[in-house]
Specification:
The chain is α/β, with parallel strands linked by helices. It has 20 helices and 13 strands.
Length: about 400
């Protein structure tokens, strides 16, 4: 699952590869926050969105390439999106089936932010209700910008404040508006807030709770905040397991859980699924898929320019030779449709196939032939501290009882 790529340029410029590749693979892709608010061509009347070209493009691109209803496009919302009625618009006008509420800015405890280099756009966003620094409507600020005293504005999103009553009401509003699935995403916050997230999700019977262990972000956010602030991922996800297990043992509903925060390859995916088994059903990753889509797009450009890098040229000089899944995809889609396929999408699809094959090999090593059979004792802790925090057995204590039986027989 790709947890959320919103209004940043890196998402905008690579959406074609992300949406089409995800649709072909049959996995999940989340349209992140502020896409409508940041779209200068969006039309807003009486405080609500009535036209959203960029959101339309993102949703329809996924829908066009979706196969046999596999996969899902998810529409996320922050405070500004909720005010604008973005999710209601997506449900009503675009046939979106899944929506996601968001506590905090991804893995950060602040509002989202991006740089704006255009005065007119900064003024438009300020009028739409965003916090823009410095104020682009201030005459002195305008003069300073035009004189070159500074080169860019900062657009900040407002933070959300959560109450149980407000959360329940919003979930019901979305269901009444036609949402078939309602998700919640939260980050590396205090344990009490994690407990609130899973308890409220349980009471509202939402479909998926994603807990992001930081290490992400595609905007201008400070890297110290992204990588070092908040509860570290292993500790955070261990607490999530404990809280989910406590609710399950009381007979309470536990939504499907997704872990995010620095996952890149199949061994990390297996660890995440095992650490949170049987409650964790999905792994969320954004930077890995994004990198795959970007690399695929770049290789496609270099093929067209006949300037293939040496480290790629050793595999071949055309799409079908360089991308290992190309022949399979061409056979499935047909030659004419395959010609329309952007190489960014092929890069993402190939990356996902690599993850799938690698995960199957690791599962085979543990003799687990279905993800439903992955369990916590498939992995071991290699330090006593990790064993204490996670509840995963320390490496030398694995199979201890069975070992004693073998030796005593």
């Amino acid at each position: 699952m790709i947890p959320g790529l919103g209004s940043t340029n890196v998402a905008l410029n690579n959406w074609e590869g992300l949406a089409i590749g995800t649709a072909l693979a049959g996995t999940g892709l989340t349209i992140g926050e502020n896409v409508v608010g940041m779209d200068v061509n969006a039309e807003i009347k009486n405080g609500k969105v009535v036209k959203a070209p960029e959101l339309d493009r993102r949703v329809k691109m996924f829908q066009k390439w979706q196969r046999d209803d596999y996969g899902v496009i998810v529409l996320q919302a922050n405070v500004e999106d909720t005010r604008l009625g973005v999710q209601e618009y997506g449900l009503r006008e675009l046939g979106v089936k899944a929506v996601e509420l968001k506590w905090g800015q991804g893995a950060k405890d602040i509002g989202g932010e991006v740089k704006i280099k255009n005065l007119a756009k900064a003024q438009l966003l300020r009028k739409r209700g965003y916090v823009v620094l410095p104020d682009p409507l201030d005459e002195n600020v305008i003069k300073a910008f035009e004189a070159g005293a500074f080169k860019e504005f900062e657009r900040h999103s407002r933070i959300g404040m959560v109450t149980e009553e407000g959360f329940m009401e919003r979930v019901q509003e979305l269901r009444d508006a036609g949402a078939q699935s309602v998700f919640l995403k939260t980050g590396a916050y205090r344990p009490a807030d994690l407990a609130r997230a899973i308890k409220y999700a349980s009471k509202a019977k939402i479909d998926l709770l994603t807990v992001d262990g930081a290490g992400g972000g595609t905007g201008m956010s400070p890297w110290r905040m992204m990588n070092e602030w908040g509860v570290p991922a292993v500790e955070l996800h261990s607490l999530l397991y404990q809280y989910a297990d406590k609710l399950a043992k009381k007979g309470e509903y536990v939504p499907a859980l997704a872990l995010a925060g620095g996952f890149t390859f199949e061994d990390q995916m297996y660890k995440g699924l095992a650490l949170g088994a049987p409650y964790v059903k999905l792994i969320g990753m954004a930077r890995g898929p994004l990198a795959a889509a970007m690399v695929g797009k770049t290789i496609g450009k270099k093929i067209d320019e006949s300037m293939i890098p040496v480290y790629v040229e050793r595999f071949g000089d055309n799409i079908e030779e360089i991308f290992v899944t190309a022949a399979e995809v061409k056979n499935e889609l047909g030659a004419d449709t395959f010609k329309e396929l952007p190489t960014g999408a092929l890069g993402l699809y190939t990356y996902y196939e690599r993850l799938g094959q690698g995960l199957r090999q690791l599962m085979t090593g543990n003799r687990k032939f279905s993800l439903a059979h992955v369990e916590r004792d498939d992995i071991a802790a290699i330090t006593p501290e990790c064993a204490d925090i996670s509840g995963i057995t320390y490496i030398t204590d694995v199979d201890k009882e069975e070992v004693e039986k073998i030796l005593a027989s």
